[in-house]
Amino acid sequence: MSRDETPPEIDFDALAAEDEAHFQTYKITFADYGLLSIFAALFGVVFLQFFTRYVLNDSVAWTEEAARYLLIILGFAGAIRCQAVGSHIALEFVDKYYGRKLGLVHLFALAASVVLFAVIIWSAYELIQRTSFQQMVSLPFPKYYLHIAVMVLTTGNLGVVAFQIVQRLKTLKSRGATWA
């Protein structure tokens, strides 16, 4: 940008109206309360860690490990919600280049997600087998509890994707999509 050019103006009123329209239609579901409770537990553990480390200068040992595991669980649980409502990060600019084949591209993306989730489930199962005798470092629980949670949450996400594949196939079939 040269010195003579002025930066583009930002229309804050339009942005505020867009945000307002989004939050008017946003619905909090029962599953969101589960996510919020996991997040609240994570917040509480991290606050306890911060308070004991920097205020009391005597850190509670288990908070770092608990925060790590809660963050992992929150990530996998939140992925189910994002998959269900379609709010994952996506390359939306690619959508306009496929035209009528866009439904097939989305179907391919869902099929790739199935493969990814199958690998995660298989890996979690292998980790359960290999770590069934190990305890967490500072918490009095077996380490495989985390792997079971990851496996269960990934299976839930796989169920959501399977449902979406069936819906997408029904939509493509009703529109008479060609596969070539």
Automatic annotation (TrEMBL):
Recorded topology in the membrane: Multi-pass membrane protein
PANTHER family listed in its UniProt record: 2,3-DIKETO-L-GULONATE TRAP TRANSPORTER SMALL PERMEASE PROTEIN YIAM, TRAP TRANSPORTER SMALL PERMEASE PROTEIN
Residue ranges occupied by any Tripartite ATP-independent periplasmic transporters DctQ component domain in the UniProt entry: 42-169
GO biological process, one term: C4-dicarboxylate transport
Protein's name according to its UniProt entry: TRAP transporter small permease protein
Listed transmembrane segments: 33-56, 68-91, 103-124, 144-166
Gene3D superfamilies found in the cross-reference section: MFS general substrate transporter like domains
Family designation: Belongs to the TRAP transporter small permease family.
Quaternary context: The complex comprises the extracytoplasmic solute receptor protein and the two transmembrane proteins.
